[in-house]
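Anyone? Bumping this.
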Amino acid sequence: MKKLSLMLLVIFAAALVVRAQDDAPQGAAAASQKQAQAEAVERGRKQFVGTCAACHGEDATGGRGPDLIRSSIARHDKGGDLLGPVITGGRPDRGMPNFPFNDSQVGDLVAFIKAQIALFDLHTRTPGAYPNDIPAERLASGSVEAGKAYFYGAGGCAKCHSPTGDLAGVAGKYTPVDLQTRLLYPAGKLPNATVKLTSGETLTGVLQLNDGSYVAIKDKDGWYHSWPRGAVKDLKVEDPLAAHVELLHKYTNADMHNLFTYLVTLK
Amino acid sequence: MKKLALILLAFAASLPAQELDSHKLLNPGTDSWPTFNGDYSGRRYSTLAQINQTNVGSLTLAWAFQSRSQGSFTSMPLVVNGIMYATLPDQVFAIDARTGRQIWHFQRPSQGGGNRGVAMYKDRLIFTTPDAHVICISARDGKQIWQIQIADPAFKGFASMAPLVIRDHVLVAGSGDAADLPGFLLSLDPMTGQTQWRWDSEPKPGEPGSETWPQDSDVMSRGGGMLWLTGTYDPELNLTYWGTGNPHPVENSEARPGANLYTCSIVALNPDTGKLVWYFQPSPHDTHDWDTNMTPVLFDANFKGKPRKLLAQAGKEGLFFVLDRTNGKALVSAPLGDSDWYSGWDERGQPIPRKEAEPQPDGALVHSAITLWNAPSFDPQTGLFYVNERDWINVYYLTIPGKKAQGWAGRDFTVVGKPFLKALDYQTGKIKWSKEGTGRGGGSSGILTTAGHLLFTADTSGNLVALDPATGKTLWHTYPGAAMGSAPMTYELDGRQYVVTPVEGVIYAWALPAR
């Protein structure tokens, strides 16, 4: 009953908040909810480290007590309905003490355990669904000097790039993982094409389609043109990233790490 | 007179039910496509030749079916008794295979996800759902008959594969790599959904194979190896062949030293008991999420002058294997493309992974070929095995090092992936011809070959194409408006051959102009 009235109160308060923010920009309510959630997780983390970690591990993966990431109770919990009773009631006969926490303390612990589960469940194949949170320090395992030497020497990077020109401040533009993958291959640049038509005309532009049946380009003014392949006498395609492709087949892991370690200094 | 009327009455009443006759599963004929791959062999080769090299240029649209629904057809439709059964996640459509008109539509609430299609047993259709259920509905009207749950979505379990029916067994499995679920294959009773047997991807402690896992932790009991793509079946040997997925924790080596059987393996099971008869492991001690689920394709052919029962597979690890399917012995082990993650072959013909190619906290650059679930095809006329593949360069990051890792313990980022359609000689593994994809977008599509000396697939610019399987030359193409995420299939009704291509929310049926 107490729980129910609390819940009603929360819903009522939320409604008030929503009403008050009717005029506010759409994302604001979501952002503040996210903020509140993050704060609950942080409070829960402190609580957990202080009272639970000795048995369940700081990351909740278990120790003397069971792994909570793989706990069915934790996985199936909805708003504390399963975790709450275990925490407040304990299982004294089996080594799980009881804790006299109130609903909001339990709520914080639940928020933290759920956040840990979500963290472990992150699937790497869903871009955007997880943070690119590998810190630069972890990736910068090479040597700045060796990276710089590769940049100006074996890699030939300086033929196209300059640390004070196009790469100035590049370390601040991307997350560390993005920077590492982009230094290897900055995908997204379409090839340039020179199209010689059977009519004698020659056009250049950015290649849009070359599927064996049709050729299409966008010219320098941004206009799209297409022809049946038969109307094209000669097609020259030039990949602006050809040098990157070539390097991909030469890099050692050490080259990659050295280059990255050098590039992250370009703040 | 009365007698005649009676006979007539009897005649009218005996219009056949549109059930799947069980012998059709063994001999589908040309008028049906009663299983995921058209037949048990997984060759995806049709003896139909009405559409052939001389007339494929005049192929035209027979009909198009609009699902009017969100989601893409990444499934394989079946055709039985002139009715097509196609799926989107949590949806099944019954469609007149002659006209493209909808007969009925089954739908349940859905969270999205993927689905690969239905299996048919007599008058029933059986399929899996994103919330890890197996559902049986009536083929007559789409009414539900039974449903069961086979994995726990709270542990990120889901299911997408099309079940495989062998006699009175429905073979089905779940997926999910995030929370250390163990892999399994279930055999269900088609009448009730009750479990007949269960095969586990991991052995129990002390059983053969358990020595390929650490003995000082329980990681084997939750070691993954999901079976997420429909297997194949040899009725003569009474063996069903399946590929298993990657081990858990994913992309972490330290937590599970050893080969980690039977993950990333091809397994031969007895369909009546679920007992393992042999295995072969294309990616031992996998640390790159290289599932070996891709179709084990079965064919009988001469190998070095001797007739043999063969199994060929191209897996996500980018290798091509031809095995003797009576015993799992490797006859050919070969790369599909550029690979630098293994140093050679062991005495069984399995690759020996290089330690340096394992995921690292600061990233490891790895070259490999890759092929996904999209069906390959074996054409007995050319003797070539066809596969859509990408030459891939990835960086693998170890994000959760150490023995205690669980679930996803690494991440990988694709740097670049160059697409190719490759034709391989099954006796040598050598690439007979290779066609580089022209586009950059689109997934890889599946492949169909036919006795009309044609290979149907989609190119990476999104075109549907018919090629000469001997050379790769394009003989027909059209742009259906999006990339085909599925594979083509074919059947013949009333003397007319149809080639079907599901593309996003539309199923196109192609045929020669009607006379």
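Late reply, but here is one note on the structure posted above: The interface with chain B takes residues 61, 67, 69-70, 72, 75-76, 120-124, 130, 134, 138-141, 177, 180-181, 184-185, 187, 209-213, 245, 248-249, 251-253, 256-257 of chain A (CB under 8 Å).
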